[in-house]
Amino acid sequence: MRCLIQRVTEARVDVGGETIGAIGQGLMVLVCAMGGDNEDNARALARKVVNLRIFADDAGKMNKSILDIGGSCLVVSQFTLAADTSRGNRPGFSAAAPPDEGNALYQRFCDFVREHGVSVETGEFGGDMQVSLTNDGPITIWLEM
């Protein structure tokens, strides 16, 4: 699985002009299940995300996790993280998991994050979403499991 994490002061996702998920301070997590991924990948990625120390401590060093600060995650499915641009200018997405598998792993990833005690808001799998966020730092990190 792949994800792009952004430390945010706020983030939201809208579908059809309505907000379906929103958070304050925390992490915006764009997630893509790749072909061949399984629940072990989702579990490992969730563990890495919730323990990643990218929030400032009292000395201003990135030394705290989402668990430490009591923040939330907005998790949005993003199959375009599987983009292959090696053969021209139009990306291919054949490396992404098929939609049914991708949705199941996306949901399991969210479940695993929640199991760590982190509040999770979500987007709509396969939906036409508009995502808004305020990147804090900016801090943006790419992870693969």
List keywords for this structure.
single chain; 145 residues; two-stranded antiparallel ribbon; alpha/beta; D-tyrosyl-trna(Tyr) Deacylase, Chain: A; 6-stranded mixed β-sheet; globular; 3 helices
What is the strand and helix layout of this fold?
Elements: E1 2-15, E2 18-23, E3 26-32, H1 39-51, E4 55-56, E5 62-64, H2 66-69, E6 72-77, H3 99-115, E7 119-122, E8 129-144
Parallel strand pairs: 3-6, 6-7
Antiparallel strand pairs: 1-2, 1-3, 1-8, 4-5
Helix pairs in contact: 1-3
Note down, in words, how this protein is organized:
This protein has one domain (2-132): D-tyrosyl-trna(Tyr) Deacylase, Chain: A (3-Layer(bba) Sandwich), CATH 3.50.80. The model has no long low-confidence stretch (mean pLDDT 97). A hairpin with a 2-residue loop joins strand 1 and strand 2. With 145 residues, it is of the alpha/beta class. The termini are close together. It has helices spanning 39-51, 66-69, 99-115, and strands at 2-15, 18-23, 26-32, 55-56, 62-64, 72-77, 119-122, 129-144. The strands form 2 sheets. Strands 1, 2, 3, 6, 7 and 8 form a 6-stranded mixed β-sheet that branches. It has a two-stranded antiparallel sheet with strand order 4-5.
- Report the mean per-residue pLDDT as an integer: 97
What distance lies between the first and last C-alpha atoms, to the nearest angstrom?
5 Å
CATH architecture: 3-Layer(bba) Sandwich
Label the structural class: alpha/beta
Count of individual domains:
1
Provide the CATH superfamily.
D-tyrosyl-tRNA(Tyr) deacylase
CATH class: Alpha Beta
Rg from Cα = 15 Å
* Shape by Cα distribution: globular
Which range does the strand content fall in? 35-45%
Note the main sheet. Answer: 6 strands, mixed
Total E-strand runs: 8
In the CATH scheme, what's the topology name?
A: D-tyrosyl-trna(Tyr) Deacylase, Chain: A
